[in-house]
Amino acid sequence: MSHVTNKEKNKVNNIVPYIPDGDFYFTKGVEAFRNRKFDIALKWMKKAVEQKPNEPLYQCQMSIIYTEIGAYHAANQLLTNVLQSSDYIDCYYLIANNYAHLGLLNDAKKYATSYLDKEPNGDFSDDAKQLLELIEIDDEELDEFDLEDEDELLIYQETAFFYMEKMEWDKALPVIEKMVELFPNHEIPKHDYARALFFSGRREEALQKELELFEEDPTSLYSLTNLAIFYYELGQNEKSDPFIQAISNVYPIHEQQKLKIAVTLARTANFEEAYLRFRSIAKGKVKNHSSYYRWYSTTAYHLGEPSKSIELWKEGCHLHPHLSKEKGPWNC
Questions:
Q1: Cα separation of 239 and 250, whole Å?
Q2: pLDDT (tens digit, 9 = 90+) per residue, 259-305?
Q3: Angle 309-311-315 (CA atoms, 0-180°, nearest 5)?
Q4: Distance between first and last Cα of the chain
Q5: Which CATH number covers residue 93?
Q6: What CATH number should be reported for the domain holding residue 282?
Q7: Does residue 297 sit within a domain?
Q8: For the whole model, what pTM was predicted?
Q9: What is the DSSP letter of 281?
Q10: How many CB atoms lie within 10 A of CB 112?
Q11: What per-residue string of b and e applies to 81-100 under the rule 16 or more CB within 10 Å gives b?
């Protein structure tokens, strides 16, 4: 039997365990981010935020990681939370950048302009100016900027996106309906409302609303994709085909718009064209969309690539557990 001397006991008792603090986790997260190990960076940054939940720098850095992997909605939700508890100016540019990636260029311009108003010589001032040059939206198209309203809109958008991606249309419908009521000048919620109506069973009402929107703007990608799907689901292929043809000639810059076209082509059984569109999408930019995995997997299966279909489905179920409750494309 070993014996521990008093001297050794004192030595053991004097050891102070090292407990990492938020700065330690933050530094490790930044290091992983610079090495492009985004999953590891996110884990470290989440630990940093847990240690110091009121440190805006940590949440902003975590939002940048989300942006890098294409989780723009998650990034903006974090940044919006920061703005609600502090006036961390960098958030305005970071939100603008995420909106630009989502194709919401009007909102992007508002936040970029707000950033430059507050920090004309800030760290992101050159980036904000370049972003504004790229957007090129006429000033007269902008509504009066009310940040508080924009924050509220973002919360509604996040909630609607969550339910729509899970195809929980009955839950999405009242959220979108309220968003349309509160923000009548925003066009995208109107198209989302028609979509939620259609898949909630109110098909004729949804079709009529979307046709009215299409009449106002015949170039709207949201109208073209909705009408292509609506008519196809109604079995009216002769009416669906012109809209499918129209979107087949559209090649957007933003990944979310590319995904919208790819999903529409898949949902209307144009699998070969859909497959080409899915392949052109940077997966890292749309990993937060379960619809990417749902319909890319379906497309691969219908084109005789079951192994690729299974691989996509498994990855989708890992990232979006609700997919595992759905039937895979081979069971449909």
A1: 19
A2: 999 999 999 999 999 999 999 998 888 988 999 999 999 999 999 99
A3: 120
A4: 68
A5: 1.25.40.10
A6: 1.25.40
A7: yes
A8: 0.58
A9: S
A10: 27
A11: bbbeeeebbbbbbbbbbbbb
Nearest-5° Cα angle at 308, 305 to 312: 135
Distance CA 175, CA 182 (A): 11
Give the tens place of pLDDT for each residue, 86-118: 888 899 999 998 888 777 788 888 899 999 999
Helix orientation angle between 56-68 and 38-51, rounded to the nearest 10 degrees:
160
**Domain membership of residue 133 as a residue range:** 22-138
Q: Are 277 and 262 in contact (CB under 8 A)?
A: yes
The DSSP output letter for 331 is G
- DSSP assignments along 56-91, one per residue: HHHHHHHHHHHHHTT-HHHHHHHHHHHHHH---THH
| Residues 179, 191: Cα–Cα separation, whole Å | 12
Cβ count within 10 A of residue 138 = 7
SS3 percent helix, strand, coil of the chain, rounded to 5, is: 75, 0, 25
| Amino acid found at 120 | P
136: left (phi over 0), alpha (psi -120 to 50) or beta: left
Please give the Cα distance from 267 to 247 (Å, whole number). Answer: 13
Contacts of 77 (CB under 8 A, 6+ apart): 154, 155, 158
Q: Specify if 220 maps to a domain.
A: no
Token pair for 147: 């940040």
